[in-house]
Design a protein that fits this description.
Elements: E1 14-15, E2 52-60, E3 66-73, E4 82-83, E5 100-102, E6 112-118, E7 131-134, E8 151-155, E9 187-190, E10 204-207, E11 239-240, E12 248-253, E13 261-267, E14 314-318, E15 340-344, E16 349-350, E17 360-361, H1 380-383, H2 394-399
Parallel strand pairs: 1-11
Antiparallel strand pairs: 2-3, 4-6, 5-6, 6-8, 7-8, 9-10, 12-13, 13-15, 14-15, 16-17
């Protein structure tokens, strides 16, 4: 029988973690005991008897977490209803009705909520407009060689308004309450750029697993290294999408020379290219306070962490620039032009000959014309254009006809694959109920 294994981890960087259960991150591996895998589909529910459902079955939780997809007796709990998994083995399934799965799949016996199963590749069944299809590492797949067979619908959120940005674990800096703290979870708004591969980029409420809820601030904010030493990575080096505090994600390597991942701040970008960056090139950092609201710039106090603003190395790049595949094909999302990531361009270099000896720093948005007019890569200010760095919105970028043209060689050294993986921080021994 075919074994289902966890989707490929982000090439040497960004990996996954499952939702619900306890605070222990469980490394998912294949197991020779995983022999009960069915050919049924959790998406179509084809392959089981009428009285059964196709779902996720937990085989064991220690010493490693192993599960499989198979047919079991249909449950009675509706989507949004209370649920839990039975003991691993013959009873290692939940009591959700067909088409749903319990959020507490990380720990048997823990209370959770039934979530709708969805197609994590963008097909049917789909989530409604208020939810996002999210793939979890310990659900519908084990191992590290095959993608998960399905995802679940999590509550959609706004990455700028539904994050705290200060790492406090409170709701003090959020301007919306979509992802509030609950009695059993500290929630932020996390997501991963699609990199041009379906489904489109989405943002959903999930756990800030390193929130400062016990007086210990891990300070996992902008450009802080994500390592096992500070708790951002597992001891085996695995890094999770929400390893950093909410409003920050381990998206980029520290520099061209240092492969360690660093937490990267979210920001709200503004158009910026030579002569068109606002007064004092202020647009480069993103949008400041508007009508008394907090700013969303790549600088303190809008964000926390280390920002190289003097000299001007930091800039807010549009999300759309991270929604292109290797051929330059663009997969737009609702937030393509409304949010972005703080990018310290001076940390990254390239080899103008196309080799492996990078010698030239990437230029800043304010230094570049909208579209590069030169043909010599050793002359970065003429060769590159602002469109190549996501310095402008899609109207300017694609209107210029060159957004999918010159590709940045090893801009950050990170290639992220789908599906993305999440993990809920749990307090009080129960799974999050969102």
């Amino acid at each position: 029988m075919k074994k289902l294994a966890l989707g490929a981890l982000f090439a040497g960087l960004l990996a996954a973690c499952g939702g619900g259960g306890n605070n222990t991150k469980i490394k998912v591996v294949d197991s020779s005991t995983d022999t009960g895998i069915s050919t049924c589909s959790p998406l179509t529910q084809v392959g089981c008897q009428a009285s059964e459902k196709c779902t996720w079955i937990i085989d064991q939780t220690t010493p490693t977490y192993v599960g499989h997809i198979g047919c079991v007796a249909n449950g009675t709990a509706a989507i949004g209803g209370d649920c839990m998994f039975g003991a691993p083995g013959a009873t290692g399934y939940d009591n959700c009705s067909k088409g749903g799965v319990c959020s507490a799949f990380g720990t048997t016996g823990a209370a959770g909520k039934c979530k709708q199963i969805c197609d994590n590749n963008g097909g049917d069944p789909m989530c409604d407009s208020t939810h996002v299809c999210v793939t979890y590492s310990k659900l519908f797949s084990t191992g590290s060689t095959s993608p998960a067979a399905a995802g679940v619908c999590d509550l959609a959120c706004d990455p700028l308004a539904d994050n705290d940005f200060d790492g406090s674990g409170s709701n003090s800096h959020k301007t919306k309450n979509t992802c509030p703290n609950t009695a059993n979870a500290v929630l932020g708004c996390y997501g991963a750029p699609s990199r041009g591969t379906p489904p489109v980029t989405g943002w959903s409420c999930t756990g800030d697993i390193n929130a400062n809820v016990d007086g210990t601030d891990k300070n996992l904010r902008h450009r802080v290294e994500c390592t096992s030493a500070n708790g951002c990575a597992d001891t085996d080096g695995t890094i999770y999408l929400n390893s950093c505090n909410q409003g920050y994600e381990p998206l980029f390597r520290e520099s061209t020379a240092v492969s360690t991942a660093v937490c990267i701040a979210f920001c709200k970008p503004l158009n910026c290219y030579s002569g068109n960056c606002g007064v004092g090139n202020a647009n480069r950092l993103g949008q400041g306070p508007v009508n008394g609201s907090a700013g969303n710039r790549c600088q303190v106090p809008d964000r926390a962490g280390t920002f190289n603003t003097q000299p001007a190395h930091e800039e807010c790049e549009y999300l759309w620039s991270e929604e292109l595949d290797g051929s330059g094909n663009f997969l737009p999302s609702p937030t393509s032009d409304t949010m972005g990531f703080c990018f310290d361009h001076f940390q990254y270099m390239y080899d103008p000959t196309g080799g492996n000896n990078p010698t030239i720093h990437y230029p800043g948005c304010e230094q570049l014309e909208l579209v590069g007019s030169g043909s010599d890569p050793s002359q970065p200010l003429s060769y590159w254009g602002a469109v190549n760095f996501g310095c402008v919105d899609t109207t300017l970028a694609f209107g210029s006809g060159s957004a999918a043209g010159k590709r940045l060689p090893m801009k950050t050294g990170i290639t992220m694959d789908r599906p993305r993986f999440l993990y809920h921080r749990v307090m009080g021994g129960q799974a999050p109920t969102l």
